[in-house]
C-alpha cells in the first residue's frame, strides 16, 4: 500500500517563480492559481536576486531556450541555492544535443530539490540509450524492461544527488529518492496529447515544495493529482480541446474532494 502525505489543498499560498518556455507560460500560471498558489514569471538576471529572495520555490524549465535565456536559468539556480530556496529543473528536450544538455547539467550542479523529465529525457541524463523524439518520449523507452533499467540507473544517481528526487513521467510514472522508489499508475492517454501537461506537473510540484512539503511527497502528489484530474476529465469530455478544458478545470475542484483514495501506486 502506498502511504504519502496529502499536499492538496495547500496550507498557504506559496509564491512560485517559473522560468519557463513561452509556449505554455499562461497554462502554468493559471494552473498554479487554480490550486491556490501564486505564480510569478520573473526571468531577467537583473531582478532575479530581488525576486528569488522572496519567493517560496523556483521552477526552471528548459522547454524553449531563447537567446541568452541559458544565462537566466543558470543564474536562477545559483541564487536558489544561495538563498536556500527549493527548486525544480525540468529537463525538457534533454538529449537533443550538447547545448541543451550542458545547460541542464550546469543547473543540476546546484543540486535541485527535484529533477523532472519524461522517460526518454531521464534515460538520456542517466547515459542510457534514449529514443526521444524532440520533447516527446519514445515508445521504446516505455517498455517494462526499459523502465526497470531506468529505475536501477536512478538509484545510482541518487547516490550522487542525495537530496534530490527524480520525477519521471510516462505511461507509468516513477519517483526515485535516496530512500524510496515509487511507481504511479493513474492517468489516461490524453494527458499527454496537448501541449504543456508535463509543465503543469512541474508547476504543481513547485507549489507543493513552496508550501513546505518534502520533495518525495511533493512529486507523488503532483503526478497523482494531475493524472486523477485527467481521469475525471476523460469521462466528461468529447474531443481533445474539451478534454483540456475539463482537465484544467478539475485542478481547481479536485482538491476539495477526498482525492487521495483514488491514487494508484506501489513501492518498488
TrEMBL record:
Biological role stated in the UniProt entry: Catalyzes the phosphorylation of the hydroxyl group of 4-methyl-5-beta-hydroxyethylthiazole (THZ).
Organism of derivation: Nosocomiicoccus ampullae
Catalytic activity: 5-(2-hydroxyethyl)-4-methylthiazole + ATP = 4-methyl-5-(2-phosphooxyethyl)-thiazole + ADP + H(+)
Binding residues annotated for substrate, in chain numbering: 41, 196
CDD domains per the UniProt record, alphabetical: THZ_kinase
Pathway: Cofactor biosynthesis; thiamine diphosphate biosynthesis; 4-methyl-5-(2-phosphoethyl)-thiazole from 5-(2-hydroxyethyl)-4-methylthiazole: step 1/1
Cofactor(s) required for function per UniProt: Mg(2+)
Signal peptide: none
The EC number(s) this enzyme carries: 2.7.1.50
GO-annotated biological processes: thiamine biosynthetic process; thiamine diphosphate biosynthetic process
HAMAP family: Thz_kinase
Stored Pfam families: HK
InterPro entries reported for this sequence: Hyethyz_kinase, Ribokinase-like
Family of this protein: Belongs to the Thz kinase family.
Gene Ontology molecular function: ATP binding; hydroxyethylthiazole kinase activity; magnesium ion binding
Protein name: Hydroxyethylthiazole kinase
